[in-house]
Amino acid sequence: MPGRHIFSPISSPPIIFRSGKIRPLFESQLKACGVDYFDFYLMHAQDEAICVKYERCHAYQTAYSFKAEGKIKHFGISFHDKACVLEKILKEHPEIEVVQIRFNYADYEEPSVESREVYEVLRCFRRRFQCKLCYPVCGRQSADANPVVENSNLT
Predict the structure, then answer these.
(1) Hey, how many other C-beta atoms are within 10 angstroms of the C-beta on 154?
(2) Can you spell out the DSSP letters for 79-140?
(3) CA 83 vs CA 2, 95, 150: distances in Å
(4) Which of 141, 5, 147 is nearest to 73 (CA)?
């Protein structure tokens, strides 16, 4: 069956960090979805530590081979770290076409999240890929807005 518009992240259980396990996991995901290829495929939850693990088991190179085989149309990452880490990943992996970030208006200037800084890195690379925003309104708390948000024009 042809592909569908499916965002399917590679999960991050310890088994994925052994290079011989990546292809079987990917093939099982194709089978479970009933497709021959994925339109979009994201390596999930990239941060500095996970990136190192993906590098060690050649996960990026394996994903690039899936793309060369026609099993992935667009390859990307979901990202959850500081702006300097994103910039390093994007410089080292020019094949990345899609980046999903957490971009919370309530956290735009929050130093521990760096939403603005991460977004600015994406703007520098914008000609290369699409940017997908994860949880664009809710901020860090999804159940109840904090007092700053409740008293702002964001809600």
Answers:
(1) 15
(2) E-S-HHHHHHHHHH-TT--EEEEE--GGGTT-TTT-HHHHHHHHHHTTTT-EEEEESTTT-S
(3) 36, 19, 27
(4) 5
Give the full edge-to-edge strand order of the sheet including 4-10: 4-10, 38-46, 72-79, 98-102, 130-134
91 and 125 Cβ atoms separated by less than 8 Å: no
User: Average model confidence (pLDDT) for the chain?
Assistant: 77
Residues whose CB is less than 8 angstroms from the CB of residue 42 and which lie 6 or more positions away in sequence, other chains included: 7, 8, 9, 10, 75, 76, 77, 78, 98, 100
Task: Report whether pLDDT(129) > 70.
Answer: no
Q: Is the pLDDT score of 93 beyond 90?
A: yes
Residue 142 pLDDT grade (very low, low, confident, very high; cuts 50, 70, 90): very low
